[in-house]
TrEMBL record:
Keywords: Extracellular matrix, Oxidoreductase, Secreted, Signal. Promotes matrix assembly. The gene is GFOD2. This is Glucose-fructose oxidoreductase domain-containing protein 2. Pfam families: GFO_IDH_MocA, GFO_IDH_MocA_C3. SUPFAM superfamilies: Glyceraldehyde-3-phosphate dehydrogenase-like, C-terminal domain (SSF55347), NAD(P)-binding Rossmann-fold domains (SSF51735). It comes from Ilyodon furcidens (goldbreast splitfin).
């Protein structure tokens, strides 16, 4: 029996997610929007019986056992932690800060029987699943270099909002770079220990954002990561994100090793061993998900479709709606993966300010909110 679903969000991801859930047999019982008007409009469009702008109305809905959270990052932690506390399974997008991510990890550890999963759909894209399997089998030999390029149009909303504000989780590094950081960890089996980055905001105002308001989120980002060991056995990664290219979209992830290379372009996987003279197509795009939709590139669309199929497989074997099986979603990123990713994002931001390499140190306990105040009082006392 599949769990009833409550969806938080009315953006492009929610618009695509709900039909995918319904196609796999999930019943979407409730929808939350920031305003009654937003929630009502999308609920009618997608045939969702209940809508609200009050989060508790969805979390306490008797037919909702799985909560999907696709809202601005600054709101994610509050909803995710409360949902777990009420006893709901959770699939959610990234939080805004490492502290928020840590609080989500703490809640997930407290309720280990519940599903707590980050929604990075690239892990489920068939091309990346196949790439990871080939890497494990030694297709490229020892992994040496990862090179990623993502180019596309602006990530800004039509009006001034969270996507314009760096502190609220906007910008290419946080929105797209976080998915790449997680993906590279999934593919290589390693985590970054040092990073170096450069962030720029080339478009601070446009026809819709002007006057006293300015965009603070990055539209260009370049960063490097050293992953795995600190010696020659480590993996060198370079990532370039450029969202100043309207009308185009490039998504390329290449892994180079001692014996060859693998590259995913869009949704197709190519490979070439060192002794081969040309590149070969290893996995063509045969998903049949449908055409690319506005504001959701095909890799993310197909990954989202595959993730929903995995969720169905995870839940369908159980008669109790809240029970799930680990196997079908074993590759999904956990809240702990989300904390690692957010830690790397913040390290890249610090590197961009200082111009220096920064060590990645994952939080092991929540900082004391009164720490700075205590230090100031101590200095005044002295």
């Amino acid at each position: 029996m599949l769990p009833g679903v409550g969806v938080f969000g009315t953006g492009s991801t929610a618009r695509v997610l709900v039909p995918l859930l319904q196609a796999e047999g999930f019943e979407v019982h409730a929808l939350w929007g920031r305003s009654e008007e937003e929630a009502c409009g999308l609920a009618k469009e997608l045939s969702i019986p209940f809508h609200t702008s009050r989060s508790d109305d969805v979390l306490l809905h008797q037919d909702v056992d799985l909560v999907c959270i696709y809202i601005p990052p600054s709101m994610t932690r509050q909803i995710a932690v409360k949902a777990l506390g009420i006893g709901k399974n959770v699939v959610c997008e990234k939080a805004a800060t490492a502290i928020d991510s840590f609080k989500m990890v703490t809640a997930a550890r407290y309720y280990p029987q519940l599903l707590s999963m980050m929604g990075n759909t690239l892990r489920f894209l068939p091309a990346f699943v196949a790439m990871r399997q080939l890497l494990v089998e030694g297709y490229v030999g020892d992994i040496q270099v990862c090179d990623v390029r993502v180019y596309g149009p602006s990530l800004l909303d039509q009006s001034y909002g969270w996507t314009s504000e760096e502190l609220m989780g906007g910008g290419g590094l946080h929105i797209v770079g976080s998915t790449i950081i997680d993906l590279l960890s999934y593919l290589t089996g390693h985590r970054a220990h040092r990073v170096h980055g450069l962030l720029r905001t080339f478009v601070e105002q446009n026809n819709l954002i002007r006057g006293i308001r300015r965009v603070t989120s990055d539209d260009f980002c370049f960063f490097q990561m050293l992953m795995g060991g600190t010696g020659p056995s480590g993996v060198c990664c370079t990532v370039t994100l450029n969202f100043n290219m309207p009308g185009s979209f490039v998504h390329e992830v290449m892994v180079v090793g001692s014996a060859g290379r693998l590259v995913v372009r869009g949704t197709e996987l190519y490979g070439q061993r060192n002794e081969s003279k040309c590149e070969e197509l290893l996995l063509a795009d045969i998903s049949g998900v449908g055409p690319e939709v506005k504001e959701m590139p095909l890799p993310h669309l197909q990954g989202l479709s595959s993730m929903v199929k995995a969720l169905r497989q995870s839940f369908q074997a159980h008669e109790e709606r809240r029970l799930w099986s680990q196997g079908p979603v074993a590759s999904a990123p956990t809240f702990e993966d989300g904390l690692y990713v957010q830690t790397v994002v913040e390290a890249v931001k610090r590197s961009s300010i200082s111009g220096e390499w920064v060590c990645v140190e994952i939080m092991s306990q929540e900082p004391d909110p009164n720490h700075n105040l205590c230090e100031a009082l101590q200095r005044n006392k002295n």
